[in-house]
Design brief:
The structure holds 2 protein chains of 2 kinds.
Chain A: E1 7-8, H1 17-22, E2 29-30, H2 31-35, H3 45-61, H4 63-72, H5 81-91, H6 123-142, H7 155-173, H8 176-190, H9 198-215, H10 226-239, H11 242-257, E3 263-268, H12 277-285, E4 293-300, H13 309-323, E5 328-334, H14 343-346, E6 353-359, H15 375-385, E7 390-396, H16 405-426, H17 429-448, H18 461-470, E8 473-476, H19 480-491, E9 498-503, E10 506-511, E11 514-524, H20 532-545
Parallel strand pairs in A: 3-4, 3-6, 4-5, 6-7
Antiparallel strand pairs in A: 1-2, 7-11, 8-11, 9-10, 10-11
Helix pairs in contact in A: 3-4, 3-5, 7-8, 7-9, 7-16, 8-9, 9-16, 9-17, 10-17, 11-12, 11-19, 16-17
Chain B: H1 5-15, H2 18-34, H3 43-49, E1 63-70, E2 75-82, E3 106-111, H4 124-137, E4 140-144, H5 156-169, E5 183-189, H6 191-205, E6 212-216, H7 227-232, H8 240-250, E7 279-285, H9 291-303, E8 308-313, H10 327-340
Parallel strand pairs in B: 3-4, 3-5, 5-6, 6-7, 7-8
Antiparallel strand pairs in B: 1-2, 2-4
Helix pairs in contact in B: 5-6
Classes of the chains: A alpha/beta, B alpha/beta.
Chain lengths: 555, 344
């Protein structure tokens, strides 16, 4: 290779486990293309170039085929250039060109002979610097990065943030009287900022949450009844596109997974008002070849007042299904906690194709009893053993489950600032107020609660990928059609600031480039269950990562 | 459409490294799918295909970044800064103090390219480029996410540029030097280069200080077909046909390429004589079919008595600066570094 060797070693990520087992060195990925957002193996560069060339020839000779490409094709994971160009070629019924060995004369050998007009540069010195630096950048990019900040500008606002963080630190250190006086100081600062919006509003929530944590920790677990929560959820649904994005994206993926199947069963981990399902029922009604027989199992909290609210929702959905001639059966499963649900309750039949739908639910299983096996792992294992055709997972894209309180607090402060900002921009006053209370409850749980009471244990997509990969799931890529659906949804909102992004087959909804929600889809890998050795390894890791603290907090 | 496509492809392959060829050909292919003959643009597919990266407050290779939204205009700016010496300060964004009270730290307002229609401030190629700029020049870079065509035509992008300029000037945390002011430079590639010219003209007219302009193969044009346009059409990734599409998408409806937004020193342009215009560094790629327009731009500045330096890179194609795998890249960076750090 010439002086500008751009290939560096990047360890393979969760995707290709086979190479690590056989001991072969993972393939090298072109480091410079990686910096541009494309993953191409060095060994594949020529092949990819030839495919691009082929596609270009088609473009010149048959331009109408290109518009067909655009209208009909669904694109997946554009970062994987090799598979992207391959799929385009097959769309055009073009065979992929055979790699010509030793075709190096076609391409410049990465060295520059031309001297520039009147300028010369010491090549070697600069090159080494740069390829090494870039290599380091790639390594760090692979590991998890910290939060993005949407900076807040007003002076008092900045001061408030500083004091908030200091207060959280002192809470973590057990310096309660200091924390208390800081809270008083902040309440004073609050009088000098606009608490109706922006940093004032967010700070207000967090100051309130910190006070609760200090002064009434026992009372925090039960904020509001589940009935209240349902009402707030509904307003949050109306106020902003977040939940709609979740539903649309999941439905699109489920619809595609159900293609060609006559007997389908959706298991919804949190039915709420069943807001997600009318759209799917209608889409199934309209599918070419006719609708399947649809079963829906909705999991939800038991109704406190003796009403069978799950059944009521099921009846309404059944009416809708009947009106569009979709054969439909509903079953409600009442459970106080998701982990209390057992496979036999779902009555999955071997003849049917199963879709699991988890919208902001999996993270609730991350709180754990240190004396037992990890809840999430047990849960994921039996889910996988149901052999679902698809599992849609939508989660908050945030790192609110870090072991250190100050880290969670900081991350939450910035995440919910973004959330409040976005709410600001797009809802009517009344909906906004109730949606904000919904968010405030989430904040309170993240900030005030510990142990099993802390259920809002959001983790970022990268962590879920690792977890689900390790539990015997492989990704199903969400494509450009799902992306388009999501974009169309956003244009219905007059708030300009929302964006959808595609990354490695998953879609993220963000506000001004700050991600809020990540949607991904999974299917069970046809493999035996996790080998014993690995299971033990996980258990050991779990034990050693649990550190008892000298403070009064319950972990 | 130029014939002999195979020859065309072979030519471009010989002048750029393999991975660069793949990168730019990939864009060319994708962009072809996005432009519709009726002048509309497949924005959804464009956003789906565009590779984006988040900002990162933790320094990577000595540079960290964060996004700021200007509430008044809803404009997103991505700010890139050199990492603090002290690791303890990593991850903390300082918005209360100036960059320095003794040294001058240039603030480069960067406008990404994309022929007015493609890319964003958080596109991976531009995020990477801005990071390299910071690393080499020890400057702060503010990348502007201006509104794009065809949804937003001229003068939207230039208005957004103006707003960004005013915003940058008003940030106390971007000030530096003993004179406590923001030392602003404007930089942009392709359409970004075009935008900064217009922003700089307005700045000169309204007496807002800009210390220098850096135009990286800026997008200029005109009704006439120049010699280079005819000679290089379709040979190095770019065709006249697609250039025309972008002008039709950007310029006000019904306008032609002699509109001053496209042809600032053309028949409908105006002279900058007598105007306190910033010094300019204009970079021209010798294999860019638009070079005659860019050279005419340089001439236009010279005739108006403005200070301008031309960097002509004979064997460079468009986009040579995306990957640091060629001499042109290093040459360019050295020039930019000298340009913003010369204190003259």
């Amino acid at each position: 290779m010439g002086p500008y060797d751009s290939s560096i070693f990047v360890g393979s990520s969760s995707g290709s486990s086979s190479s690590s087992f056989t001991g072969k060195p993972p393939d090298q990925i072109d480091g410079l293309l990686a910096g541009a957002g494309y993953k191409v193996r060095s060994s594949e560069l020529r092949q990819v170039a030839q495919c691009l060339e082929r596609l270009e020839t088609v473009m010149v000779n048959a331009p109408t085929e290109i518009s067909q490409l655009v209208n009909d094709a669904v694109h997946y994971n554009p970062s994987d250039l090799a598979s992207w160009v391959d799929s385009l070629l097959s769309e055009l019924n073009q065979p992929a060109p055979v790699t010509v060995p030793g075709g190096s004369s076609d391409y410049s050998n990465l060295s520059f002979v031309d001297s520039l007009e009147g300028l010369t540069i010491n090549q070697t010195a600069i090159t080494d610097d740069w390829t090494e630096h870039h290599g380091a950048q790639q390594q760090q990019d692979v590991s998890q990065q910290l939060t993005v900040v949407t900076a807040m500008e007003e002076d008092s606002g900045i001061r408030l943030v500083h004091v908030l963080l200091t207060c959280a630190e002192s809470v973590q250190r057990g310096e309660f009287s200091l924390a208390g006086s800081l809270i008083e100081e902040m309440q004073g600062l609050l009088t000098r900022v606009n608490t109706g919006c922006g940093i004032g509003k967010v700070a207000g929530c967090f100051i309130d949450a910190l006070s609760r944590r200090l002064y009434t920790p026992q009372g925090v677990g039960s904020i509001g009844s589940s009935y209240d929560n349902e009402i707030l959820y509904h307003h949050f649904y109306e106020a902003c596109p977040n939940l709609k994005f979740a539903h649309f994206t999941a439905n699109q993926a489920i619809l595609e997974a159900f293609d060609g199947h006559d007997c389908v069963h959706v298991i919804d981990f949190n039915l709420m008002h069943g807001l997600q399902w009318p759209a799917l029922i209608q889409a199934l009604a309209l599918r070419p070849g006719g609708p399947p027989m649809l079963r829906l199992t909705g999991i939800g909290l038991p109704s406190p007042d003796g009403r069978d609210s799950l059944r009521e929702i099921g009846l309404r959905l059944a009416e809708l299904a009947s009106s569009v001639n979709v054969r439909f059966a509903f079953r409600g499963v009442a459970a106080s906690r998701l982990e209390d649900v057992k496979p036999w309750m779902l009555q999955v039949s071997p003849k049917e194709v199963v879709a699991i739908n988890s919208i902001m639910q999996l993270h609730r299983l991350l709180g754990s009893d240190p004396t037992r096996e990890s809840t999430i792992e047990t849960f994921l294992r039996w889910i996988r053993n149901l052999n679902p055709k698809i599992m849609t997972v939508i989660e908050q894209e945030a790192n609110h489950n870090q072991p250190e309180f100050i880290d969670r607090f900081t991350e939450a402060l910035y995440y919910y600032s973004t959330m409040f900002d976005s709410l600001e921009a797009c809802s009517t006053l009344q909906e906004k107020a109730l949606a904000e209370i919904y968010i405030q409850r989430e904040i309170c749980n993240v900030v005030c609660c510990e142990g099993l009471a802390r259920v809002e244990r959001h983790e970022p997509l990268a962590k879920w990928r690792a977890r689900l990969g390790g539990a015997g799931f492989q990704p199903l890529h969400l494509g450009s059609n799902a992306f388009k659906q999501a974009s169309m949804l956003l244009t219905l909102f007059s708030a300009e600031g929302y964006c959808v992004e595609e990354k490695e087959g998953c879609l993220t909804l963000g506000w001004h480039s700050r991600p809020l929600i990540a949607a991904s889809a999974w299917q069970a890998v046809a493999e035996p269950s996790i080998p014993i050795g690995q299971r033990l390894l996980v258990a050991v890791n779990f034990q050693t990562s649990f550190k008892p603290t000298p403070l009064a907090f319950r972990f | 459409m130029a014939g002999g496509n195979e020859i065309n492809v072979n030519e471009s392959k010989r002048v750029v490294p393999l991975n660069t060829w793949i990168l730019i050909s990939n864009f060319k292919l994708a962009y072809n799918m996005l432009r519709r003959p009726d002048g509309t643009f497949n924005r959804d597919l464009a956003e789906f295909l565009d590779r984006k990266v988040p900002a990162n407050t933790i320094p990577v290779d000595g540079v960290y970044s964060f996004d700021v939204v200007d509430r008044a205009s809803s404009l997103l700016n991505r700010v890139y800064m050199p990492a603090p010496e002290n690791e303890v300060q990593w991850g903390i964004i300082e918005l209360e103090k100036p960059l320095s009270t003794t040294e001058i730290v240039p603030v480069i307002i960067f406008f990404h390219g994309g022929s007015f229609s493609h890319s964003s401030a958080n596109s991976a190629i531009y995020d990477t480029f801005c990071r390299r700029l910071v690393g080499i020049c020890k400057a702060v870079v503010v990348s502007v996410n201006y509104r794009r065509s065809p949804e937003h035509r001229y003068p939207c992008a230039c208005d957004d540029g103006w707003t960004a300029l005013k915003w940058v000037h008003s940030r106390s945390w971007l000030q530096s030097g003993k004179d406590s002011k923001v030392h602003v430079y404007l930089a942009g590639d392709s359409s970004g280069g075009n935008i900064i010219h217009h922003v700089a003209v307005r700045a000169a007219e309204e007496e807002i200080e800009v210390l220098g302009n850096i135009l990286l193969h800026p997008l200029f044009g005109g009704q006439e077909r120049t010699e280079a346009e005819k000679r290089l059409d379709g040979r190095y990734f770019v065709t006249l046909q697609n250039r025309d599409w972008y002008w039709r998408a950007y310029l006000p409806e019904g306008e032609n390429r002699d509109h001053p937004a496209c042809n600032p020193f053309g028949p409908r342009g105006k002279s900058l004589e007598g105007l306190k215009f910033p010094k300019s560094l204009v970079v021209v790629a010798g294999l860019d079919l638009l070079q005659d327009w860019q050279l005419a731009y340089v001439e236009g500045l010279r005739k108006a008595g403005q200070e301008v330096k031309l960097l002509f890179l004979k064997q460079a194609t468009i986009g040579f600066y995306f990957l640091p795998n060629n001499d042109h890249f290093y040459c360019l960076m050295e020039m930019i570094n000298n340009f913003v750090n010369s204190n003259c």
